[in-house]
Amino acid sequence: MMDGEWADEDIDRLIAAIDEDESCESCWREFHLISDALNRRPIMSDDFMARFHEQFAAEPTVIAPRALRHRRLQVVGKRWVAISMAASVVLVGATAFYVNRSAAVTAPSVGAQIAVNQAPMRPAEVDVNPYLVAHQDVIGNPGLVHRAVILTEAEAEQPVVH
Amino acid sequence: MMKLRLGLCGVLLMAAAQATDLLTTGESATLLRKMGSAARSLNYSGVYLYQHGADMEAFRVLHLFDAGGEQERREALDGMAREFVRNNDQIYCYVPDHKPFALDRKIANKFFPGLIPDQASDVLASYSFKRGEMERVAGYDCQSILLDPRDKLRLPHRLCVEPSSGLMLKSVTFNPDDHDVVEQFAFTEIDIGGQIDKRQLKPTLASKTLPPDPAISNSRAPAVAPLPQTATAQPPATLPPPPFVAVNLPSGFRMVREMQTTMPGRAGPVQQYLYSDGLASVSVFLELASTNPVSLPLKQGRFSFYSRQVDGWRITAVGEVPARTVQLFVMGFEPR
C-alpha cells in the first residue's frame, strides 16, 4: 500500500481497520516514522515534532567543551550511541526537508546541511587570524599569548601580499 | 486543584532559588576593590583551567606578595610549554628555544584571578552586580556574583569569590541567549595564604638570553615591549592619518590603547584602537583597502567581526562581544 500499488477501496478498508484498533494505529505511526527517518523524508507528524522540540528544550545545557563531551561519549554504552545516531538521522532528515523546501534542491548535499547548521556564518573571504592575533596581543591572557606567538610565527613566514 | 497548588508552589520555589540579590553601587565597588587587592596582595598557589570554546588549557600559578612586592610564576600545563614570570610590573614570557620577551604590564595584570580592571567605575557603569548562591570551587565555599550587562552590547559574567579573602576562584562569561559558556577560568585546586618558596618562582624555561636583572628594574621601565615577532617584522611603510572620526561609539567603552601594528599579509602598518568597558574589549583596525569590499565571518568562536570599506579604507572591528556591538563600532567611524 505504501508503495502505491493498492487499489483505493483496499486502502480505505485498511485505514478504517486502523482507526478502530489503537495498537494498530500506534504501529502504523512508528512504521512511518522509521521509514521517513531512513529515507530522509520530512517528518510529517506534527505531533512528533512537537514532542521532539519539547524534549530537546528540556535537555540540560551542557557547558563542558566539546572535547569533554566526546570523552563522555566514549564511556557511554553502544545502546545510547545507537540511539544518538538514530536521532541524528531524524534530525538530518528534518534538515534536509527544510533545505529542500527553501532552496528547491532535490537532493541536498551533506555540505548543504552543515551550512544550514552553521548559519549565520558568511563565506570568509578574508583571513581573520591577523586581526585575532593583533587583538589578543593587546588584551592579554596566557592562553591567548600562546596562540598569538604560534600564529604570528607561522604567518610571518608567509610572503607579504601587496 | 491540589495539583495546581503543588505546581504553583514548585514555580515559586524555583523562582526563589533563582532569585539574586542586587548589590548597591557602593557594595559593588567595595567588592571589586577587595577582589583586585586579593589577587595582588595574597599568597596563593594552585592550578586553574582556562576554557574557551571547545578548547581547554590548564595553568599552574604561584603568587607571592612580600616586602619586595609581587612575584609570580605561571606555567602552562597543556600544549606548548610556556611560563610567565612576574616581578612587580615586569612580566616575561618564556617559551622553549626563544628569547624571553616582555609583556605589556597592562596586559599581564589581567591574568586570572586578577581580571578586575584598575578603573572599577568602567565596570560599574556597564554592569549591575547581583549576589547569587553559594557555590563550591576547588574545595572552597565561594559567593556567586552575576555581572549583568545594563544593555545588550556586552556579555554577562558570573564570578565566584571566596568571601573571606575576596579572591576570585572562578569566572564564567556566557551567552545570555543559550547560556553557553564563551570563556571560563576556574581553579581546580588552590592554597590561599600559604608559604611560597621563592625558588619555585624562578623560570624553568630560561634560555641563553635572560631578562634584565629584576633588581635594577623599576616601575618606570617602558610599559610596552612588543612581541619579538612584531619587532622583527619588516620595517613599516607609512600610514597616512586615517581620515575618520569616532562618533557615537557604544556607550561604556573607552579607548585604552592606540597603536600602529604590523599584521601578516599586510604591506604596511595598520592603525589599531583598543576599546574596553573594563571587562569586554574590542579592537578597531583601520587600514588602506587594497581589494574590493570583503566579507568576514560574523562569528568565530567567541569573537564577533564586522568590516566595511569607506573611501579606500577598510575598517574592521573584532571583540568578545555580541555581533551588534562590533557593528556599531565600525559604523561609528565616520569620514571627517
Describe, in plain words, how this protein is organized in 3D.
The complex is a heterodimer of chains A (162) and B (336). Chain A is 70% helix and 0% strand. By secondary structure, chain A is mostly helical. Chain A has a domain of 32 residues. In chain B, strand 17 and strand 18 form a beta hairpin. The longest helix of chain B is centred in the first third of the chain and has 17 residues. Chains A and B meet through helix 4, helix 7 and helix 8 of A and strand 2, strand 3, helix 3, strand 14 and strand 15 of B.
Question: What is the secondary structure topology, with strand pairs?
Answer:
The complex is a heterodimer of chains A (162) and B (336).
Chain A: H1 8-20, H2 22-38, H3 46-58, H4 66-75, H5 78-103, H6 110-117, H7 129-139, H8 142-156
Helix pairs in contact in A: 1-2, 5-6, 7-8
Chain B: H1 2-18, E1 21-22, H2 25-41, E2 44-52, E3 55-66, E4 69-76, E5 83-87, E6 90-94, E7 101-103, H3 105-108, H4 120-126, E8 127-137, E9 140-149, E10 157-161, E11 168-174, E12 181-192, H5 228-231, E13 244-246, E14 254-261, E15 270-276, E16 281-288, E17 299-300, E18 303-310, E19 313-319, H6 323-331, E20 333-335
Antiparallel strand pairs in B: 1-8, 2-3, 2-12, 3-4, 4-5, 5-6, 6-7, 8-9, 9-10, 10-11, 11-12, 13-20, 14-15, 15-16, 16-19, 17-18, 18-19
Q: What is the SS-derived class of chain A?
A: mainly alpha
Largest interface summary: A-B, 42 and 65 residues
Computed over alpha carbons, the radius of gyration of chain A is 25 Å
Number of strands of chain B: 20
